[in-house]
TrEMBL record:
The modification N6-(pyridoxal phosphate)lysine is found at K193. Belongs to the DegT/DnrJ/EryC1 family. The active site is at K193 (proton acceptor). GO terms for biological process: polysaccharide biosynthetic process. InterPro entries: DegT/StrS_aminotransferase, PyrdxlP-dep_Trfase, PyrdxlP-dep_Trfase_major, PyrdxlP-dep_Trfase_small. Its cofactor is pyridoxal 5'-phosphate. The keyword Hydrolase does not apply. This is Pyridoxal-5'-phosphate-dependent protein. Pfam families: DegT_DnrJ_EryC1. Keywords: Pyridoxal phosphate.
Amino acid sequence: MESVTHSILLSPPDVGPDEAAAVARALESGWVAPAGPDLTAFEREAAARVGSPHAVAVSSGTAALHLSLLAAGVGPGDVVPTSTMTFAATANAIRYTGARPVFVDSTDIDGNIDVVLLRSVLRRLRDGGQRIGAVVPVDLLGHVVDYTAISALCDEFEAPFIADAAESFGSLHRGRPVGSFGFSSCVSFNGNKIMTTSGGGMVFTDSPDVAERLRYLATQARQPVAHYEHTEVGYNYRLSNVLAALGRAQLRRLDSMIERRRAVRTAYRDVLDRIPGVRVLGRVSQDQHENCWLTAVVVDPDRAGWAASDLARALAAADVESRPLWKPMHLQPAHAGADAAVTGVAESLFLRGLALPSGSSLCDDDLDRVLSVIRSVAG
C-alpha cells in the first residue's frame, strides 16, 4: 500500500470560502451574540427547507431535545419510550426533565426502533398506569424511522411525538421532509453532522405557541419587562448569530453535500454487497430518501471469515477513522436498571457494525484508499 500522507476522518466538517465569507460578514455587522439578523434568517430558511411553520435555533441538538420535552410537559414521574440504539444525548435529555427513559430495541435492517415492539411497550406502560410523557424515536445514522406508523401510535396512545432527527436533516419520509413531523422535530448541526454550525441544533414545530415557549425557555425564561424578571427556571440555549451565518451558508450547499454522501454510499455498496456475510446497514427505498450521513457495514464473522473489529484495526493501521455503532443505552452504566424492551438486535448491531468514512469532503482518492483496505481484509 502506498504511504499514508494524511488521516481520513469519519465525517469532518465540509466548510470553505462561502462559509468563511458568511462568518466574516456576521462579525463585521456587530451582531456577535445569540440574537441578530442571521439567526432570524437561518430559522426562516431552515423552516422553509422542511416545510415547517416555525423553527427555533439553539446551541445543540441536546438542547433541542431538552426544550422539546419541557415544552411537551414532560417531567418527574413520566416515562418516555425511546430508541436504545442512539447517542447518549437522547437519553440524557429525558433524564434532565426528571422523567425515565424506556429503551426499545431495533430492527436489524436499519437499526431504527422496532415499531411492533414499541406498540407493545406503549400498551404495557398504559395498562400499568404509567404516564407516557412523550415518545422519542431516533433516526439512526440518517436512516429514517417509520414516521407514518409512529405518528399513528402516538395518536392512539395520546403521547406527544418528539422526533430525534439529529442525524437525518435533509432526509425524506414518503416524500415529506424530516423536521415536519410530530409535536416537534429536533436536529443537530454539530461539527460532524450533514451540515454544521460548529455546535448547534434546531427545533421545528407546527405550533406557534410551542415555538414561543421554546424561545422563552432558551433565553433564560426572561419575562418581557425592562428589568430582569424570572418566574421560572430557564436555560442559556440560543444559537449565536455568527454560527447562524455559518449555518445559512451550509444550508445553501446542503443538497450537493447530500449528493456526495450518497455517491460515497453507492461506492461502498458496490464493493461490500459482493462480499459474503457483509452488508451496508439500511434499506434501499423510495419511501425513505436518506441523507446518507454515515454509511455503516454489518459483518457476520461466521460467513465473512473476519469481524468488524478486524476491519477497524486494518483501517486504523492505514490512518483511517472508523467507529462501532452506538452502544445501546440499556447497556450503558449511566442507565443501569432502566426499563427496556430488548430483543438482542441492537446489541448484535453494536458488536457487528462499523461506521465508515462518509463525509461530503471525502475525495475519490481517499475513498479508494478506504476501499482498498476493505478489499485487503475481505481477501
